[in-house]
Amino acid sequence: MLDMFNLRNITVDVQNEVSVVQVGATLGEVYYRIWEESNVHGFPAGVCPTVGVGGHFSGGGYGNMMRKYGLSIDHIIDAQIVDVKDYVKNPISKDGLEWIWKKMIELGQTSLVFNPYGGRMDEISANATAFPHRAGNLFKIEYSVNWDEPGVAAEKNFTTQIRRLYSYMTPFVSKNPRSAFLNYRDLDIGINNHQGNNSYQEGEVYGIKYFDNNFYRLVKIKTEIDPENYFRNVQSIPTLKLRYS
């Protein structure tokens, strides 16, 4: 893990409508610095003020203004890199919604949050940025389960509930691949140990779901910038030296 706490400087240039934000800053700090300089400017990003901009922007940057202004990533004009670097596509019928609701009641503690698409999100090409989930999507779904009971048995029970709900939603969501949102990280769709000759294949499993065909472009960039794969996690972009060296 890299601690970005000290990389949090924010410079706001209202005249040119440009801000320079370091990766360790939080969304709340960005909003506050903009407010200090202007009461009519803003930035399309999330609603949680303690979220770090590095992770938020790299996942696209969802927020309440996305239908009018798009995502955070759509407004990033440059980035300095330091070297050592479910979606609903078709309307769900009334019967389908009633069936989903029935299953959620049976499971008990699960919930679904539907984030609507449209507007500016439909106007930006799927390959304009790394974030591919654009026109053709009606909603993004967030799966949630909460519990207060302690112990391994309770954990197993409730995680099983959310996995069942995820399975129940299969007929209603995107297919081939079943898309996923990077910042709603789901280790069930695949992980990578970054060892041996299978690293690329392991990364492709989850990478296609997060980035669609943009995954291959990200592999090329990753290989050029971080050929030794120094910056990595269990779902990071892999390198492919044989193809892109």
TrEMBL record:
Pfam families for the chain = BBE, FAD_binding_4
- GO molecular-function annotation terms? flavin adenine dinucleotide binding; oxidoreductase activity
Keywords in alphabetical order: FAD, Flavoprotein, Glycoprotein, Signal
**SUPFAM superfamilies named in the record:** FAD-binding/transporter-associated domain-like
> Source organism's superkingdom?
Eukaryota
Show where the Berberine/berberine-like domain sits.
Answer: 180-238
The FAD linked oxidase N-terminal domain sits at: 2-83
Q: Which InterPro entries match?
A: BBE (IPR012951), FAD-bd_PCMH-like_sf (IPR036318), FAD-bd_PCMH_sub2 (IPR016169), Oxid_FAD_bind_N (IPR006094)
Q: What is this protein identified as?
A: Reticuline oxidase-like protein
Native source species = Cajanus cajan (Pigeon pea)
